[in-house]
Amino acid sequence: VDLVTGDDLARAAARLSGRLVRTPLLESARLSDEFGVRVLLKPENLQHTGSFKVRGMLNAMLARADGGALPAGVATFSAGNAAAAMSYAARLLGIPAVVCMPPGAVEAKVQAVYRYGGEIVFTDALVATCEQIAAERGFLVLHPFDDPEVIAGQGTTGVEIMRDCPEPDLLLVPVGGGGLISGVSAAVRAAQAGGAAKTKVIGVEPATADAMSHALATGSPTPPPTRPSSIADGLAAPFAGPNTLAHVQAHVDEVLTVDEEAIRDAWWPLVESTKLLVEPSAVVGLAALRAGLVKPAAGATVVLLLSGGNASRTGIAEVAGAA
Amino acid sequence: VDLVTGDDLARAAARLSGRLVRTPLLESARLSDEFGVRVLLKPENLQHTGSFKVRGMLNAMLARADGGALPAGVATFSAGNAAAAMSYAARLLGIPAVVCMPPGAVEAKVQAVYRYGGEIVFTDALVATCEQIAAERGFLVLHPFDDPEVIAGQGTTGVEIMRDCPEPDLLLVPVGGGGLISGVSAAVRAAQAGGAAKTKVIGVEPATADAMSHALATGSPTPPPTRPSSIADGLAAPFAGPNTLAHVQAHVDEVLTVDEEAIRDAWWPLVESTKLLVEPSAVVGLAALRAGLVKPAAGATVVLLLSGGNASRTGIAEVAGAA
Fold first, then answer.
1. Residue B115 with chain A: CB contacts under 8 Å
2. Are B222 and B214 in contact (CB under 8 A)?
3. Residues of A in Cβ contact (< 8 Å) with B314
4. What residue in A sits closest to B40 (Cα-Cα)?
5. Residues of A in contact with B111 (CB under 8 A)
6. Is pLDDT at B176 greater than 90 in this prediction?
7. What is the mean pLDDT of residues A274-295?
8. Is the pLDDT of residue A197 over 90?
9. Residue A49 half-sphere exposure, CB side, CA atoms within 13 Å?
10. Per the CB < 8 Å rule, is A272 touching B275?
11. What is the pTM of this model?
12. CA-CA to A176 of 20 to 30 Å: which in A27, A126, A248, B123?
């Protein structure tokens, strides 16, 4: 497995420049006060399609187009954000997209795919169905997280963070299949190459959807024994990948798990204090802080990577109404 | 009445630099698609205290401190956002703040004042009570919108917009007492001084809280005959002021009104499509677009100024749950 390099990240950033939202790095006075640290937010819920996923999908497609190999169409499997991201990117490039999604996918994510002209096949056999359809139609399967160009695209999130705040003490990154933390940790290490590895990168995944922790423990990206399921639907990847596991092993300091109650309890407080509509997957970093699972030193600069905002409308109504 | 100048705005921007959030200008692909124009969002819900109001309050206090006249304490009257903003700014400067608010103020705004150490007096006689308390304690009354330094501070929102997008075709700005649109329109005209006045600035206020429309119609900032009241609680100013009326007369192209149903109907769509938690006051520009009250040319660049995010929790639960 080759790790994503600073050059890969620079090429990805150049491809995406002007096509996506340059998300800011926002200081949260409220969360800073609450935790006695400087809390910065990277709000990828404000990205086109409502999540960081479009960075990876668009970079992977543009990389193939640059290489003269724009496919006839593209296919992927996803809880929804990668599906919407692929649909958006495919529409930009003028090719069709078909996405396999689980039958219980969040409605906001289903609607996002349709909005961008994607075709959805609902199935529990996500990977097999995706590969079969792609073979039938001559489409390219883009892995939603374990493709090197997808990882490089997600890594542009980290490139921007390090440009806006050159020396954060800690990054808390949601982990599903691991594409985001792979790219972001590669960007952090590339930005700090030659210097001391000052910035800690900590991944957070749901205790009930811990494919990466399982892969780290076993040393291989085999699926965990129980099928992942979480209120953080975007993190319920059935397995990590060889590429993402290698990046996490090389670059990430620790991967923690948080329980469902902690995620649920942190959801509305995050929305209310930051004024950002996020989905539960984006909340795991704050949940880890609230639970005391990470204890940054007083005054440390802590970046919460808010991965997406495609929240269930009924979920938001429930947590907002639960006062 | 002296209008705020480019120099006033530059001084305000210098005072506030590094103390507040430099909010971005975000492109909304979804709203752009929906209206066939380029929609840019200025998300002041992401500002410290959850609204633009802190710009004006902090600038007004710093201007007095720069002049060697930091008061013993400050007082204002407000539906809530100016109250929270004053409390935050006063805490930064180490002086006490007392704010008069209506008994029915939104709970999120009440909590924001307490969070920043402000003292609240609930009263329907907002102005008289505020002046009496300030006189008793020797505090300075800062008008929540009709103070020239407050207007200059709010205008830094416009300075930033024009820096990030030098030639927008249209700005849609929520109007309560008129402090925001006064400062922002002054910034637009200052940025375009000497050139053609290309950018239209249109104010939007609730039909049931139309103090500025009434002032424009009568040529004086007298209170409208019926007491203002709106779901957009932040815009229910009982009157415009001589300073804000003069700025609107000089710089603003038009002030429109939108009805309550249009505001309510646009609230969740704005939150859901932009992933920004905003309060109803911030929604009036989108409501005007949806109602066809403004019809920008195809491809025009339209800036929606999202004034704040201190939404009622039950209100959000209701509109999110109304699917």
1. 30
2. yes
3. 320-321, 323
4. A21
5. none
6. yes
7. 98
8. no
9. 31
10. no
11. 0.96
12. A27
Dist. CA B10–CA A318, nearest whole Å:
45
- Which pLDDT score, from 0 to 100, does residue B193 have? 86
Helix (H, G, I), strand (E, B) or coil at B51: strand
Please give the Cα distance from B289 to B206 (Å, whole number): 14
State residue B197's pLDDT score. Answer: 67
Q: Which residues of B touch A30 (CB under 8 A)?
A: 115
User: Please, what is the average pLDDT of chain A?
Assistant: 96
Nearest to A41 by CA among A271, A310, A303: A303
Look-up of token digits 């939150």: B271
Single-letter amino acid, residue B253: D
Give which of B42, B275, B319 to mutate to test A binding, by max A Cβ within 10 Å.
B275
Per the structure block, which two tokens stand in for A244?
């993402």
Alpha-carbon distance of B90 to B98, in angstroms, equals 10
Tokens of B179: 């402090």
Over 90: is that where the pLDDT of B130 sits?
Answer: yes
Cβ neighbours, 10 Å, residue B72: 10
Structure token pair of residue A237: 């990847």
Per-residue pLDDT at B240 exceeds 80:
yes
| pLDDT tens, position by position, B248-304 | 999 999 999 999 999 999 999 999 999 999 999 999 999 999 999 999 999 999 999
Q: Tell me whether residues B316 and A316 touch, CB distance under 8 A.
A: yes
Shortest Cα distance, chain B CAs vs residue A131, angstroms: 31
Q: Is pLDDT at A110 greater than 80 in this prediction?
A: yes
Please name the residue that has the structure tokens 């808390």: A172
Residue A164 C-alpha, separation from nearest chain B C-alpha, in angstroms: 12
* Residue A80 zone, left/alpha/beta (φ > 0; ψ -120 to 50; rest): left
d(CA B233, CA B235) in angstroms, rounded, equals: 5
pLDDT band for A219, please (50, 70, 90 cuts).
very high
CB of B66 within 8 A of CB of B92?
no
Q: Find chain B residues with C-beta within 8 A of A323's C-beta.
A: 313-314
How many whole angstroms separate alpha carbon B197 and alpha carbon B208?
Answer: 31
On chain B, the residues whose CB falls within 8 A of the CB of A313 are: 268, 272, 320-321, 323
* Nearest-CA distance A176 → chain B (Å): 21
Cβ separation of A317 and B317 shorter than 8 Å? yes
> For strand B254-258 and strand B38-43, is the pairing parallel, antiparallel, or unpaired?
unpaired
- Nearest CA of chain A to the CA of B84: how many Å? 13
Tell me the CB-side half-sphere exposure of residue A204, using CA atoms within 13 A: 32
B156 exposure class (CB count in 10 Å sphere: 0-12, 13-18, 19+)? buried
Determine contact, residues B199/B167, Cβ cutoff 8 Å.
yes
